[in-house]
Amino acid sequence: MVLFAIIDILGSAPIIINVKKNNKNIHAFWASLVALIILIFFLFMGEGVLKLFGVDIESFAVAGALIIFIFAIEMILDIEIFRSYKAPKNTFSIVPLAFPLIAGPGSFTTLVALRAEYRVENILVALILNMAFVYLVLKSTDRIEKLIGEAGIYVIRKFFGIILLAIAVKLFTTNISYLIKL
User: Fold this and answer.
1) What pLDDT, in 10s, does the model give residues 11-32?
2) How far apart are the two ends of the chain, measured CA to CA in Å?
């Protein structure tokens, strides 16, 4: 469920609809597959990459919490901080959808935190289930837009913004207290 809230594909529906309107064609399968590959890579290699740069997991988690916090503020206050860039042509299924919208700093931090608490097999199952849901949502954006309308998308975005804000605060307080004790 934590990955579901962090990835927040339903809360990202307004962004996906906007990308689709600007670029006309979203490749749901490729966006989901690339995001899954990126997330699995980070699940297994994330700690090694962090160690390569001399960063401990707690510091990365605090940095990730700040990024999740900013994403949540974007969703709650209807402002854009990270997502206001244009992707190169023919990459819109990958950038910004697969990375950083689906597989981004928040999900990377969450994977590192989950790996400390859960077995890798359970996390892999959660990733696959989440990416299957992401695929279904990406494939169904037109139907979702018609079904819940702009107001529904707005409400979902606000709801998941508050959930993300709570996750950011928990992640920050848990890891900052560890860093302060050092």
Assistant:
1) 777 777 767 766 667 889 999 9
2) 31
